[in-house]
Design brief:
The chain has about 250 residues and is of the alpha+beta class. It is built from 6 helices and 9 strands; from the N terminus they run H-H-H-H-H-H-E-E-E-E-E-E-E-E-E.
């Protein structure tokens, strides 16, 4: 009876010396907490087959840094059962199957992560190439935009002779000089005159008889000239800003 009590007492005291609960041991060893409790309380009826009980005791002893062979020898003396057929009941198979299942789940998660990463890399490359295309595409040295010309519709009988050319006059001319790439959206009298990337070393001319509204991101690199007067840069920073130029 003294030997029977000694086995559980050794396990329990060693666990308490390490300030561990039965649940913490269960998480670390993958042994059910009810089997941990059964070993410490020496409640053999609550343990599985002898071969599995031996396996759990070996794992638990190794975890607590106890002498495995001594603990197994003590177990065999106090456990009144015939020696197990380890080939027929190999407790390790169950544990290895569980570990294989865990490794398979981790592998599947890694595969999904790699696929998502590949998609993100592809999208990044696509948008980078698109940006380069927009920046370096050939554009005219000067892009002119005429908004709401002041010439009204002319009735057929009022069409001037071919030799006479009607030249529209504009009260407002806004010229933009981008020093680096910047995004801009330009409106006048409810009409969109321009939307896209302002390319460096080009100039953009907007002519209108109505106020010109410029939305720009990166305006600290775009200089504006209004009716021949240098108005400086559109903004002091790279944030999105709004400028309105009056005729």
């Amino acid at each position: 009876m003294e030997e029977q009590l000694k086995l559980g007492e050794i396990l329990r005291k060693k666990r308490e010396e390490r300030n561990l609960t039965q649940d913490e041991v269960s998480e670390a060893t993958f042994i059910s907490s009810r089997y941990i409790k059964a070993l410490e309380e020496e409640d053999w009826d609550k343990l599985p087959e002898r071969a599995y009980a031996l396996g759990y005791l070996r794992i638990y002893s190794r975890f607590l840094e106890l002498d495995e062979e001594e603990m197994l020898s003590l177990f065999n003396r106090v456990y009144s059962a015939e020696p197990p057929d380890l080939k027929a009941l190999d407790w390790k198979k169950g544990e290895e199957t569980r570990f294989r299942g865990t490794r398979k789940e981790e592998s599947e998660r890694a595969t999904v992560f790699k696929k998502v990463l590949a998609v993100l890399i592809s999208l990044t490359i696509f948008f980078a190439l698109l940006f380069v295309f927009l920046i370096f595409r050939p554009v005219p040295e000067e892009e002119g935009m005429i908004v709401n010309p002041p010439v009204a519709a002319i009735e057929p009988e009022e069409i001037p002779p071919p030799s006479e050319e009607v030249v529209p006059q504009f009260s407002l001319t806004v010229t933009l000089f981008p020093e680096r790439a910047a995004w801009a959206e330009i409106w006048s009298a409810g009409n969109e005159a321009f939307s896209g990337i302002l390319v460096p070393d080009k100039k953009y001319v907007i002519k209108s008889n109505y106020p010109v509204e410029v939305w720009v991101r990166g305006g600290d690199g775009v200089r504006a000239v209004v009716n021949g007067e240098d108005r400086g840069y559109l903004s002091e920073g790279e944030e999105k800003t709004r400028q309105i130029f009056e005729p």
